[in-house]
């Protein structure tokens, strides 16, 4: 934990032309089911919490929904060709649980399984390895109706689903990620309510976090029993810096680091919740939902940890009592988040490549040795499709270049970083922001579903082939 003034001076100038990655380094792109698939009523798919949420007026910017999204459900062959053009070795995508088990339990929906089976075969035909995420936020609505992630049973249902679908795809899919960003599922979903299911119950968010972790642990066990080869989880991590070195600001940073990063890293990789986090939360949450043996289950050995990185948090101790409104920061609502006034993306996220270097080296130093992958990194900018059919997204190219270089610095210091997935292959449904934020290497015209490789995509294709900048 360095204060902002210290960390600014650690930025090094690197000769980017010298940036090379190890042989066999994984280059990929990532997407998620609800963000790209569309076809929400087809082939027996049931509703997910995101269908319900997106169709609730006022929840999504512009009233957008994932009903059609990128129509990837029908256009996946074209999208696989685009991936081949990009020269990627791996494609990270998620399975829509409600396509596979519309009720969230029991019998599998054959047509849903078949879609993913065809997708996997299509990827393999083009020499692209499928990298499956089991859960990227689209919980079957019937499970939310039964209590959602704050209910322990959801963890059991998740493990059952994991085993059932691995049984169908495991012969062709080597890499299995249980959850994507459980922080978002728990805190955006149940504390601030800006994501589905939109509940604002701070203590329930902590129960959700625990049952997500438990579901992960139970799923790892179930997958291993079936002989799964590579099993891991993806977390979204942020460096959290105090704005000054004052004890109060440092304490604010410690609290947010606990609620953002360590609440997941420590149970997963050390088998316990951090004592300081439990103490911070004691006034608002009792942890009586944690049963004997849960933490050992959660602490199951992993083959890899996926890290999603976008930006850094800079915080200061609150100077006045927090307003009584729902936030993500249960028990630490008074902490203030500080903007540094540095360049930012269209999400309003400050561009901070050093933060990626710090995150990777921190995980390695404090929790390693463990193979790491950057499972998401990328940026939204206000792209424009020019009359000549090009998208001149130099800002995105530069963003990625600086983050690739930061990852390479971590590698050079011995971090076992095995690969890098750019978010995202396609412009897509960006959750509460709908279609207003474009992250793709490929531009999507939502009227016609026409795909256009952006300049950043052309550049990325050179990187994947040269395995360096
Ligand atoms: C991450 C999500 C991903 C995408 C990016 C921008 O938090 O995992 O689905 O929305 O942010």
From TrEMBL:
InterPro entries in the cross-refs: GH, GH_1_N_CS, Glyco_hydro_1, Glyco_hydro_1_AS, Glyco_hydro_1_beta-glucosidase
Residues at which substrate binds: 35, 136, 180, 310, 423, 430-431
Pfam families: Glyco_hydro_1
GO molecular-function terms, A-Z: beta-glucosidase activity
Keyword entries, A-Z: Carbohydrate metabolism, Cellulose degradation, Glycosidase, Hydrolase, Polysaccharide degradation
Superkingdom to which the source organism belongs: Bacteria
Listed GO CC annotations: cytosol
Enzyme active site: 181 (proton donor), 376 (nucleophile)
Catalytic reaction(s) noted: Hydrolysis of terminal, non-reducing beta-D-glucosyl residues with release of beta-D-glucose
Its EC number(s): 3.2.1.21
PROSITE patterns: GLYCOSYL_HYDROL_F1_1 (PS00572), GLYCOSYL_HYDROL_F1_2 (PS00653)
Name of the protein: Beta-glucosidase
Phylogenetic lineage: Bacteria, Bacillati, Actinomycetota, Actinomycetes, Kitasatosporales
């Amino acid at each position: 934990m360095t204060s902002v003034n210290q960390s600014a001076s650690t930025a090094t100038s690197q000769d980017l032309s010298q940036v090379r990655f190890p042989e066999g380094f994984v280059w990929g792109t990532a997407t998620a089911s609800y963000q790209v698939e569309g076809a929400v009523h087809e082939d027996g798919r049931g509703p997910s919490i995101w269908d319900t949420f997106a169709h609730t007026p006022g929840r999504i910017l512009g009233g957008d929904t994932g009903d059609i999204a990128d129509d990837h459900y029908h256009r996946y062959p074209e999208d696989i060709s685009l991936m081949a053009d990009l020269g990627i070795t791996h494609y990270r995508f998620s399975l829509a649980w409600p396509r596979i088990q519309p009720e969230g339990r029991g019998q599998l929906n054959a047509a849903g399984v078949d879609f993913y089976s065809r997708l996997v075969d299509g990827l393999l035909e083009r020499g692209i390895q499928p990298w499956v995420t089991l859960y990227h936020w689209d919980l079957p609505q019937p499970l939310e109706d039964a209590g959602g992630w704050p209910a322990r049973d959801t963890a059991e249902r998740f493990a059952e689903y994991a085993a059932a679908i691995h049984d169908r795809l495991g012969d062709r899919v080597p890499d299995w990620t249980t959850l994507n960003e459980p922080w978002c599922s728990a805190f955006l979903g149940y504390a601030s309510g800006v994501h589905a299911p939109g509940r604002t119950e701070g203590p329930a968010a902590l129960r959700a976090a625990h049952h997500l972790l438990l579901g992960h642990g139970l799923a790892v066990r179930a997958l291993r029993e079936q002989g799964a080869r590579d099993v891991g989880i993806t977390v979204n991590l942020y460096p959290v810096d105090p704005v000054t070195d004052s004890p109060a600001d440092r304490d604010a940073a410690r609290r947010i680091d606990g609620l953002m990063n360590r609440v997941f890293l420590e149970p997963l990789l050390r088998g316990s919740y951090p004592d300081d986090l439990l103490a911070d939360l004691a006034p608002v949450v009792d942890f009586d939902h944690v049963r004997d043996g849960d933490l050992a289950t959660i602490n199951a050995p992993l083959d890899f940890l996926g890290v999603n990185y976008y930006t850094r948090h800079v915080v200061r101790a609150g100077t006045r009592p927090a307003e009584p409104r729902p936030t993500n920061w249960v028990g630490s609502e008074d902490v203030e988040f500080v903007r540094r006034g540095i360049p930012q993306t269209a999400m309003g996220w400050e561009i901070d490549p050093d933060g990626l270097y710090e995150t990777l080296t921190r995980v390695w130093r404090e929790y390693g040795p463990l193979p790491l992958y950057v499972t998401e990194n990328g940026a939204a900018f206000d792209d424009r499709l020019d009359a000549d059919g090009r998208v001149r997204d130099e800002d995105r190219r530069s963003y990625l270049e600086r983050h690739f270089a930061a990852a390479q610095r971590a590698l050079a210091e011995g971090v076992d970083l095995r690969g890098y997935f750019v978010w995202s292959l396609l412009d897509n449904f960006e959750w509460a922001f709908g279609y207003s934020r474009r992250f793709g290497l490929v531009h999507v015209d939502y009227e016609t579903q026409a795909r256009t490789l952006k300049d950043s995509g052309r550049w990325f294709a050179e990187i994947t082939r040269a395995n360096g900048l």
